[in-house]
Amino acid sequence: MTRMHPSPLASSLLSKAISSPTSSTTTTTIVLAPLNSAIDALPRKPWEDADDYAALGAAAYDGNQGQQRANTNLRRFVDRHLVVVEAADAWAMGQRASSLAGRELWWDEDASGHRLVMPHHVEVERVASRVATGEVWIIKGVLPPGTQHDPSQGH
Known about the structure:
seven-stranded mixed beta barrel, 4 helices, disordered N terminus, disordered C terminus
């Protein structure tokens, strides 16, 4: 059986978490790093947005403005996957925390003991690393764009 690996996006998520202005000795940052297979299963790349294509067509990401749109979309994606826990230790089961995108998240376990990021039921494959300022969790899916409560996340 082939081992699933975290996506290259994980290093981007981790570097943003480490340099995050929210990092402190009283908070822990959890990086929710999707597997390659989760990124590959997306209908578009994380920096693409259906609304951009609808409004601008195939040239949505051409030129400086297109690059700026792509960077904004990627930042939104990354922010959905960085969770700041108001504690200097690990993220406890059931503890509510906010992603950098402002979404309330928590984790729970299913009947089989698998960790799930809630409310989206995204399974955690494993906790890949722990450091003083946080943890990297490898997840088997991606956290979806926002809802009416999170308008900055697009579609």
